[in-house]
Structure formats: C-alpha cells, structure tokens
Amino acid sequence: MGHTSLDKIIALQRNPANIRNLCILAHVDHGDQEYLLNLIDSPGHVDFSSEVSTAVRLCDGAIVVVDAVEGVCPQTQVVLRQAWLENIRPVLVINKIDRLIMELKLTSQEAYTHLQKILEQVNAVTGTLFTSKVLEERAEKEKIEERESGTLSGDQVYDWSAGLEEADDSHLYFSPDQGNVVFASAIDGWGFSIQQFAHIYSQRMGIKTEVLLKTLWGDFYLNAKAKKIMKGAQAKGKKPLFVQLVLDNIWSLYDAVVTRRDKEKVEKVVTSLGVKVMARDSRHSDPKVLLSAICSQWLPVSQAVLSMVCEKLPSPLDMTAERVEKLMSVGARRFDTLPQQTQELKRAFLQCSSSENVPVIIFVSKMFAVDTKALPQNRQRPLTQEEIAQRRELAKQRHADRMAADQRAAENHKELTHSGTPQEDSKPAEEETFIAFARVYSGVVKKGQRVFVLGPKYDPAQALNMLPEKYSASDCVPEVPHLSCCSMESIYLLMGRELEELEEVPAGNVLGVGGLEEYVLKSATLSTSPACPPFTPLNFEATAIVRVAIEPKHPSEMPKLVRGMRLLNQADPCAEVLIQETGEHVLVTAGEVHLQRCLDDLRDRFAKIEISASKPIIPFRETVIRPPKVDMVNEELGKQHKVAIIHQVSQPQSHINTLHVDPSGLVTLTTPNRLATVSVRAIPLPQEVTRLLEISSELIRTLEQVNMSLREGKNLDISLSTVEAITELKGQLESLLQGRKWRNTVERIWAFGPRRYGPNILLNSVEGYQRPSVWQCLSRGDKVGEAGAQATVLRDFDNSIVSGFQLATLSGPMCEEPLMGVCFSIERWDIQSSAASQKQDSMEKDSISNEAVVEIKVEGSSETTPQAGGIASGPSQARRRPDVSSADCYGPVSGQLIAAMKEACRHAFQAQPQRLMAAMYTCEIMATAEVLGRVYGVLGKREGRVLHEEMKEGTDMFIIKAVLPVAESFGFADEIRKRTSGLASPQLVFSHWEVISSDPYWVPTTEEEYLHFGEKADSANQALKYMNAVRRRKGLYVEEKIVEHAEKQRTLSKNK
Questions:
Q1: Deepest of 46, 390, 545, 891, by most Cβ within 10 A of its Cβ?
Q2: With 0-12 CB in 10 A as exposed, 13-18 as middle and 19+ as buried, what is 897?
Q3: Please, where are the H alpha helices in 299-433?
C-alpha cells in the first residue's frame, strides 16, 4: 500500500460501491478491485463520547476495538449503542492478545476460553438492543391490529417471547466464522481473521476452505487417525481446532522469540513461514523488534482489518430505507406526513447518485478549527534557486545592519531591530479558520456552489408554501423561518492533518467545507432543495454537567476571551458556553478531562490569553421529602417538631398579612392589590415518578409543542410512535401514582416544570375548574374544531399561574437551584372580576394578542364568549374604574399573580422537610487485590458508596462499581492513581440525582440530640456545607458565625 496520488483518489470517489466510510484516509488494493476508505478516528475516553456521535453519523460502518484483558467496558457499551441508534454495521477487533501471553501467562486453551467470554459479553450488549427493538416493533404491530379489529377480549394471554423466534438476528452478532472478528496485537504488528488460517490449512491439509471456515471456531477438534474434523472437543477433552491450528502457533512463536530467545527455533520458524528478517532485527537486544519483524510479514494486522472492512462493511449504496427515514423524521413528525417532494428525496438517498439533476444533500456533523497557514491555498510552495539566493543576500544584509546597530545608541538600536524583523501576528483574528466536517448523501458538491442551510427547526412544508416552484439557492432568499443561503467557498479532501483542495466531490464521500463558520454553529443540513428536511439531531451519550466560570487575568483582554469562547463553542460538539444573569462567562463540559482540554484549547488556540477559571460549579437540585418519623438519634418524633419547622420557616416573612401558612403545609397568598388569592401545597413525588419524568423530558417537550399548536388552532400531524409513547407515559404515571392521595392525579396535571418539561408537576385541585388536559392530543376527534372549542375553557390568567410555577421550580428557596420531584397542588384560586376587567382594559389599550386573548371566561359561569369584550356580566363600569386605578400602582394583575404564585410555591416548599439532591457519577474501577484497600479509602473519604465488587475471571483484577457525588469527584482519578501507584484507574459516567439524607437546616431540639451532638451541633453537616457553598458563590446571604470560639490566646496557652 504505497502513497496514493490525489488524481487516483478523485477517480475512486466517483465509484460509491467501492467506498467505505469508517476512519484517516487510505487507499487499498484488494484483489482486483481498488477501494477508498474514509477512516474517522474517535477518542475512547468516556468524556469524549460526543466525538463518537459526530463520527458515527457520517459513517456506514464502525470498527469496535475491545481490549483482550479488560473485555467489555462501560464505554464499549456506549459505542455499540451509538452505532445501533445510527443503524450502522459494526465489526470487531479484539486487540492486545499479547497481554494474555506475556502478562496473564495464560495457556492457549485458557486464552481461547477467555476470548469466547469476551465475544459473549459483546454479543450480549447487541442482543439486548436487538430484543428491545423487536419487542417495540411487535407491540406497535399488535396495537395497529387491535385498532383495526376492535378491542380484544380481556382474558388474552400476552406472550413476550413471541416475535423473537421469527426475527432473524444472525447477521447482528460477532462471530469469527462470519468474518466480522479480527484477533490482533497492534503493538506487535500482527492480526488475523480465521479466513486467513482457513486458506493456509486448506492447502496444507487438503480440507475444503468452506469446511475449515465453519469449524475453526467452535467446539470442533481434529481426529488425526481418521483425518476428520469431529464435534465435541470439550466433552472428549480434546484441543479445539482454533487452539491447535491457530493459537498454539502464536504461543510457540512468542515462547521461542521473547521468552526463551531460542535462535535455532527462531530460524526454523522464519524458514517455515517463508519470511525475510533483516540481520539488524535478529541481532537487536529487544526481542520484540524481531517478533514484530516476523509477525508483520506473516500476519500483517493492516491486511486482516482492511480485508474485513472491504468485505463485511456496507458501501454508501447499501444504505437502508429505515436509516433514511430515521434521518429525515425530525421530532414528532412522521415520515409519511412530510410533503410529497420531501418524500421523493428518499430515492436520491438510496441511489446515492452523482448525476447533475439530483439535489445535493450534505450533513455537517461538526466544525473543526485549523490553522489558516495549514490551508492548501496558504501553504508555502518550494522556493526556486533564485529566491533562495535573494533570501541569502537579504539575511546577510540584516546581519550587517544588526552588527552596526550594536554600536549605536540604545533607542536607535530598538528602532533598527524592530524595523529589521518581519512583522508577526498582524492579523490575529484570522489565525484559526473553521472547516465543516461533512458527508455528501446525494448529488455532486462543487466549489463555490450555493446551498440552503436548514436550521434544526426548519419545516419544509411551510417553506414550500412560501417559496415559488423550482426555487434555487442562487436566487434571493425571502423571509423563510430557519432557512438561509450560503456559498461553499472551498471544498477539501481530508488526508489526516493534511487538506487537499478539490473542485468537486460526488455522493457517498466525506469532505471538508470551508466558508461556513458564519452559517453553521455545530452541525447542520445543507441542500440545494428547499424540500429537504433537517436531519435528526445527533445522539450525545455524555451529559454536560461540569461547569466553570472563566475570566481573563487582565480585564482589558475580555473581548479576546469572548471571541475565544465563541470559537471553542463552535469547535467542540459537547461544550456549551453561557453568560449567566450575573455576567459570568460559564463553560459547561462533560467531565474533568474534557474540561481540562477545553481550558487548554482556550489558552493556547482560541483566546491565546492567560485565563483564570473558578472552581467547578457543581449543580444541585432541591426537593422535599415526607416528614421523617425518627430524629437524628433514631428516636421517634413528636408532633411538636413539625410545628417547630413551620414556625421556623414562616416567621421571617415581610408580607405576613398577605401570607397564611396552615399547620398541614397549605400556603395561602394574596396579591398586593387583594384581587387574587392562591392556595398551594407542596407534595413530594415518588422517586420512580421523578425518574420517569426525567428520562421522558424530550417526550414531554414534544407534548408541550403539540398542546401549544392545538391552543393556537393549528393542525399538527404527529407520528403514531409519538402518540403511543405519550400514551405509555400517561399509563406509567397512572400506575405509579396510586392511592387515595394521588386519585385522578394524572388527568389533573396542569403543567410540568421548569421550562415546561422538567421533573416537577403543577396539579389542578381547584374546585369547579375544568381546564383542558395536557393529554388532550390523545383524545382529540376533529383536530382543529375540538382544539378551538377546548381552548376557550381556559380561565383568565391561567398562563400567569403556569409562569409563576415555572419560575418557582427554576430556582428554589434553599440556594436558587432548580427543583426536582415536587408536586405543587393548587387547592384554591380566586380572582375578583375587576382583575379580569383590568386585563381587558390593558388588552384594549396595548392591543396585545396574549395566549388567552380569546379565552375570557365569566367567573362562576360556564358560558364562553369568542371576543375579548364579553365581560358584560361583570361589575358596572363605574365600580370598575377605581379598582383599576388602585391596581395600577402594583403593576398588571398578570404580573402580580405570577409573583404571588412563585412566592406561594416557595413557601409551600419551605413548609415541608427540605433536602438537597446531589448529582452522582457511576464509578467503575479496575484494580488488583493488593490495592483494593487504598481504593476503598479514597472512595470513603470522598463520600462514595460501593455498590458491588466482583473478580474478573481468569485474572487477578477486581471490578468495583460505586457511586460518587460529582461535587467530590474533582481530582479523584489523580488521587486514585497516586494512591495505587497507577494500578487502578476509574471511569466516571453521570448516572442520577440522589437525595442527601441530612437536613441542611437541622438544629438539635430534643434532649437526646443535645446529649449526642452537643449544644453547637458542629459536626460536619454535608448538606449545609454544599448549600452554603452555592449560596456564597451566588452572592446570597449565608448564615454563619465569623467568631466561633471567643477565648483569648493567653487563656488557651495557660490551659495547656
């Protein structure tokens, strides 16, 4: 495989059948055919799994590399799931097999058993994904049949296993006999698939290649007497064929070359294999050099992997219809509800055609920054002899000037040296430029071509109605939402770090596009057809949870920092850049390693200034729990404790005359103008419900979008799968919210929050107020008509109540962190009719089309009027005017109600036992037995909790699974490595939120607690420590004693 010319690569790009999109560009001769491989490498650390997502979207296949010693790690599972979600075909490379020989000292038979287990582990992950998919499809099919045939009888038995037997999953699994597994040791330069050995032995032994392919892996052995391959090696205690013909040879090679260094045997091996070894390799002091020289000729790893890639991975022409539909169906939209012109593009995807009349479709998965000097047009060309001579003369002249300048005055010296040196960094703003990392799915991309840039919310149906027919990107763009036009200034072939400029790129290829930095932030869909929908967003497995505030060392360099952070935000698919209300510039990353890399990039590449980063800002959540039954020393609580809590919370309030707190925890609050009163109670949600709401956030967001469309009278076609997912969510909530307290709760849900899709619920318990259900999209008949009818049932200021709830759940009273797992039940909501009149007045005056403009409802009446003027049955005009003028000094009623609702929720929250929730990492540590104690010590010191530990079979390694608060995780990996001398390394993945059991407001109240904790109770309260740290960072009041013990120094010294 020699160096390939650019012309040859351009020629190969025109044949999509021989393109394999995987990883670094290489040209491969494979038999009679030539293949073009686009190799996209992705980092293995769990913090950078977003990079895997961007790579996977552009590929048709993936090479999954697994360590032969460690086996399936959490990251392996993540990678396989990402490949599955994107419908791409993986192949497996089991690497580092040399470690089984040299480190673990396994025999060839033990190694074979170990490799079998690794394959089983990988296949178990794939099998789980496949099973869930089959069961989902089958459930969907049954629902359709049930809908068509009417309701089935109630006594029908549901057989979960049905459907799995019929589904063909043989092509999914990794098996050496299928040719999708390579065994390798990349460090020693060897790798093989069983096909290679099948060809070798079929010639030597006279057995057909097909027979060997089926029997080289599995429970088969060679009967030497009968000269037959028999089954049942394990039962008869015989060596399996794979051990006898493959592994034994490799083990004996290592034994001869590395372990015993037997020169005679090595010479025999070299002769029998027919390889040539250079004299310097055979004389080298390191035996691994000789081993590498033999293996790289006998079983070259590149040949094995590339042959597998060419034979087993699909070309761009083999893209499945299922994958195309999945890419084109954004959010709740069903593929068959998209416009006809959009659906016709599916054919262009499947054909992967490069003809002139086919629309161009490109997906940009990420933007990456390159040095402007590295671009082909700016690359230095080789100098001619004349130019070299000129530069030599110029250098001599400068040297003479410098020597003369040394003898002059100091100021002249400065001027001359500055004039003699070439100016650098004259244009610092242009040092980094962005290239879009993209793939062409259809058509031919040409340099300078104009295309549409489709934003993630772009709707092709809306655009096709607004644009004239046969509209192209070269025409002037009218105002179409989320659509813009750009020109692809330059297109590049990505050759590792090198870029080669091209004139055109046909379909099926990966390319770089220049000139898009002003139009594309992180990812985008580009097309010459406005009928093309935006592709579905990338699936990011990593959660961005670690945030730091950043500022420049020198305040004058703030503009450089802002520009640098903008560039970093564009270059990193997972990093987020925010400016908080306080004015802080905040960087949000996936983990400690990711954070460090982002800070280094910011310092060295994007901002090029000295920066100072705050300590990591740890996210917390606030929640309430059921009143505890025992105190801090496990004594039963009396009723006086609960009264003390409510008294303690309710005393420092300024608006005491408008606020009433019931002993049961019901908070009643009246607006300042006395026109509206709300009563709210906070109830803790069961943990299972909170978890369900958290994982269903995207679905709840879709539900909210659908409800908004219905309120506006729009007709939105949502896919059958989305409707079923919403139905299932509703059913799960009903099953989890059981009992007298939660009766009919799911139907009475008013809203979710914060941001309308969070894990908190607003509940409508107001007597006589029947508002539209949030589940109205499930039971709608005539879509538009019924939506219009239901919209009028909303009461005045309904939206103000929801807005107050959203604000309350966004920042809680403990330390202004979002709430989680809290249900706010509104048990009373009274509005005097003059408030509604004021609303009507303000609408007439300002002509504001508010959400409830056609939803004015007469208090105490079920009649509705379509116009805003329907308040005739309210109080008379004469009585109304004074109320309005008195209300005006407090501002609009809607605003007062939002504030009152927010305060009522906060007080209701404080009337219950409050707790902080900490973000938790799942921590998986591999460690040897001798360092286990140290690992446990580090975990214990950092509030970690071990879930379980198990020994990895065939090794002396233990796998420890633990949970660790994110707040305690900084420096954890370094400390573990230091304490264990590098013998243990953790992998941290964000897992869940967990309630911190201690009460941050706890003070001793009973005699037993005073005895146990002392009067000050100054033992460390973890929750209080976290809460005060957050309050201090946000500039909130922190109640703490500055002087703790006021003894004099002299007194202390006397007492010694």
A1: 46
A2: buried
A3: 301-312, 321-328, 340-351, 385-405, 410-420
Which CATH number does the domain 61-139+172-311 belong to among 3.40.50.300, 3.90.1430.10, 3.40.1280.10, 3.30.70.860? 3.90.1430.10
CA distance 236 to 435: 61
Q: What is 555-566 written as a DSSP string?
A: GGGHHHHHHHHH
* Radius of gyration of the chain from its Cα atoms, rounded to whole angstroms: 35
Contacts of 963 (CB under 8 A, 6+ apart): 920, 921, 922, 923, 944, 945, 947, 991, 994
Q: Contact, 190 vs 301, CB < 8 A?
A: yes
Per-residue pLDDT of 889-908, as tens digits, reads 777 888 888 999 999 999 99
Checking DSSP bridges between strand 89-95 and strand 61-67, what pairing results, if any?
parallel
Instruction: Give me 381's structure tokens.
Output: 């060309």
Close Cβ partners of 1034 (under 8 Å, ≥ 6 residues apart):
582, 815, 816
Dihedral Cα 794, 796, 797, 798, nearest 10 deg? -20
Instruction: Tell me the Ramachandran region of residue 496: left when phi exceeds 0, alpha when psi lies from -120 to 50, beta otherwise.
Output: left
Helix/strand/coil (H, E, C) string of 427-491? CHHHCEEEEEEEEEEECCEECCCEEEEECCCCCHHHHHHHCCCCCCCCCCCCCCCCEEEEECCEE
As a whole number, mean pLDDT of residues 911-917 equals 90
Which fold does the domain 914-997 belong to in CATH?
A: Alpha-Beta Plaits (3.30.70)
**Identity (one letter) of the amino acid at 603?**
R
Indicate the CATH number for domain 321-376+430-527. 2.40.30.10
Residue 55: both structure tokens together: 């790579």
C-alpha to C-alpha distance for 543 and 839, rounded to whole angstroms: 43
Q: What is the pLDDT of residue 635?
A: 60
Contact 821, 685 (CB under 8 A): yes
The pTM score is 0.73
